[in-house]
């Protein structure tokens, strides 16, 4: 209560708590303004990272919903229906890719699954690789492997030849 | 480590761990799977010889494990979306996790024979 001795403010504790805080500042002695910690100031760099992380967050959810349908449908056809894995072979693949519908299905599944998985692994690398160099090179390896796999898979779907000998 | 500071989450943390582990496993399988499928551009024999590996008992069992990982990741992913976008999602996250596990067990039981029938028939005849 020592602070109240120098002012004329009331010294009894009110319903809002101790009177000390009331007595410290008044109209003539306003409390100092503390700047919000994340406020953009003149010192904030103009070029920021934008909202890339928010966009990847949204992509994970949107692609996830589509992948539930595409991947579970794929598993049903390849591993569950019509004898399970027994019937899978070159002739079975040729039969399915004769239809543009399944070509588009597989192409969309390839791209969405690879991007969804690559972004997931990017998050995992960012979480656990603590050294800057390690994190950078692991992500470069991830991106290289992702680009290679997506392009290879796309090429295979578009250039598939059922009469190859 | 000071006592009492180790974070030991309950359902929320363990479902997050399982989502991570299954996600990484599925991603690594995806690499292999695109590569083996690319063999259709080499020759029908090269592809069929490689697919024969998928029909061995051990790898067939691993396919059942793959189905388990994908089903959990898919169902729990829908739960994560509900937690993020449904106004009451966070309040019911535990109930939704037990729903996920219930549906997962039913689907895994249903997938047991269809997925493993190749091995079951090979090992036990008929």
From TrEMBL, chain B:
Name of the gene this protein is made from: sdhC
CC cofactor: heme
GO biological process, one term: tricarboxylic acid cycle
NCBIfam families referenced in this protein's UniProt entry, alphabetically: succ_dehyd_cytB
Main localisation: membrane
Top-rank lineage group of the source organism: Bacteria
Organism ancestry: Bacteria, Bacillati, Actinomycetota, Actinomycetes, Kitasatosporales
Pfam families recorded: Sdh_cyt (PF01127)
InterPro entries tied to this protein: SdhC_prok, SQR/QFR_C/D, Succ_DH_cytb556, SuccDH_FuR_B_TM-su
Protein name: Succinate dehydrogenase, cytochrome b556 subunit
Subcellular location per the Swiss-Prot or TrEMBL entry: Membrane
């Amino acid at each position: 209560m020592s602070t109240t001795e120098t002012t004329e403010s009331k010294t009894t504790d009110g319903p809002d708590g101790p009177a000390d805080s009331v007595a410290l500042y008044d109209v003539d002695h306003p409390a100092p303004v503390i700047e919000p910690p994340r406020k953009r100031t003149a010192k904030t760099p103009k070029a920021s990272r934008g909202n890339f992380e928010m966009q990847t967050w949204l992509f994970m959810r949107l692609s996830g919903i589509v992948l539930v349908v595409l991947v579970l449908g794929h598993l049903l056809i390849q591993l569950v229906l019509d004898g399970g894995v027994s019937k899978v072979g070159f002739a079975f693949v040729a039969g399915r890719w004769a239809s543009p519908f399944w070509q588009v299905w597989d192409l969309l599944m390839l791209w969405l699954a690879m991007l969804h998985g690559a972004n997931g692994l990017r998050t995992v690398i960012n979480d656990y690789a603590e050294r800057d160099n390690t994190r950078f090179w692991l992500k470069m390896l991830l991106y290289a492997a992702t680009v290679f796999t997506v392009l290879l898979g796309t090429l295979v779907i578009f250039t598939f030849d059922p009469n190859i000998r | 480590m000071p006592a009492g500071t180790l974070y030991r989450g309950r359902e929320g943390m363990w479902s997050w761990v399982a989502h991570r582990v299954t996600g990484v496993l599925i991603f690594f399988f995806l690499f292999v799977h695109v590569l083996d499928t690319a063999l259709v551009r080499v020759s029908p024999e090269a592809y069929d010889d490689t697919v024969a590996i998928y029909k061995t008992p051990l790898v067939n069992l691993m396919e059942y494990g793959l189905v388990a990982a994908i089903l959990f990741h898919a169902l729990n992913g829908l739960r994560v979306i509900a937690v993020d976008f449904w106004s009451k999602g966070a309040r019911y996250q535990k109930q939704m996790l037990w729903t996920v596990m219930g549906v997962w067990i039913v689907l895994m039981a249903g997938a047991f024979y269809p997925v493993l029938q190749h091995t079951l028939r090979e090992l036990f005849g008929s």
